[in-house]
Amino acid sequence: MDRRLFLKASVGVVAGALLVPKWIPAWAQGGLEGEDVAKLEPALQKVLGKGFKDLVPSDSVKLTMPTIAESGANVPFEIAVNLPKEQVKAIHLFVDKNPSPHVVKVETGQAMPAYASRTRMAETSAVRAVVETQDGKLLMASSSTRVTVGGCG
Amino acid sequence: MAIRVLARITPPKPKAGDVFKLQVVAQHPMEPGTRKDEQGNLIPAHYIDQVDVYFEGQKVSAILPEPGVSANPLFGLEFQAGQAGTFNIKLKDNKGDTGEASVKLELA
């Protein structure tokens, strides 16, 4: 192969590589590491009776997670909801790639709409905080945590 | 066997109207039901599935954990201080074991 041909060929390869992102579905663009909506969907249906498309990403929900967790057995998280407590019915946490993605439901009642606890994570995954409001809306905040050693097996 | 439970309020003496944390720690293996022992048998699930929080006898909040919660779990809630009183926390796991803790809320 002479150099001219090689250069032409490599231009083709580079152009191809640049085109690849267009083939990724829209939801995955700028998506979270370890996102797995297909696995999350049945859990959402079971717990909330709603699918992933019914969840509204919202700025009033804040989910704080570490970006890297050394052990998946014990990953701290904090959920804070910037809404009056009368409007919030329940707070849920889902971990996309866990064997059972639904981790906890908190019926806040008289408490402020906030929750802090620790979860297990089987592997690197996206994490969702879902807030049920009294008027039936589902607000969501997502985050992603990289797990070095899984905590479910 | 009763579950050992500790409850704590931070800051210990909040002012009326302030938001304070109620933290509950339980001693529990929280087996998720997905792990195997040395012989390769599945360890059956054993986890706390209900935490009820009462204030002066009134149920104010409930937490329903699933197997995905860590061992020796911490449950952190936030309340707004209104009047002094006592929090009672009652836990139950899926094998029927129970645990209880109480903590007094004193206002500054």
Q: What does it look like?
A:
The complex is a heterodimer of chains A (153) and B (108). By secondary structure, chain A is of the alpha+beta class. Chain A has two helices and nine strands, in the order ααβββββββββ. Chain A has a single domain (37-147), classed as Immunoglobulin-like. Chain A has helices at 3-19, 37-48, and strands spanning 56-57, 61-64, 68-71, 75-81, 88-95, 102-107, 112-119, 125-133, 138-149. The radius of gyration of chain A is 20 Å and the shape is elongated. Chain A starts with a helix and ends with a strand. Mean pLDDT of chain A is 85; it is low at 21-29. By secondary structure, chain B is mostly beta strands. Chain B has a single domain, classed as Immunoglobulins (Immunoglobulin-like, Sandwich). The A-B interface holds A 73-75, 78, 85, 95, 98-112, 114-120, 151-153 and B 19, 21-23, 32, 34-36, 53, 55, 58-71, 73-80.
Largest interface: A-B, 31 and 32 residues
Fraction of residues in β-strands of chain A: 35-45%
Overall radius of gyration of chain A: 20 Å
Total strand segments of chain A: 9
Can you count the helices of chain B?
0
Question: What are its keywords?
Answer:
heterodimer; A: alpha+beta; Immunoglobulin-like; elongated; B: mainly beta; 4-stranded antiparallel β-sheet; 3-stranded antiparallel β-sheet; about 0% helix; about 50% strand; Ig_E-set (chain B)
List the topology elements:
The complex is a heterodimer of chains A (153) and B (108).
Chain A: H1 3-19, H2 37-48, E1 56-57, E2 61-64, E3 68-71, E4 75-81, E5 88-95, E6 102-107, E7 112-119, E8 125-133, E9 138-149
Parallel strand pairs in A: 1-9, 3-9
Antiparallel strand pairs in A: 2-4, 4-7, 5-6, 5-8, 8-9
Chain B: E1 4-10, E2 19-27, E3 48-55, E4 58-65, E5 74-80, E6 85-93, E7 98-105
Protein name (chain A): Thiosulfate oxidation carrier protein SoxY
InterPro entries (chain A): SoxY, SoxY_sf, Sulphur_oxidation_SoxY, TAT_signal
Domain Ig-like SoxY (chain A): 53-152
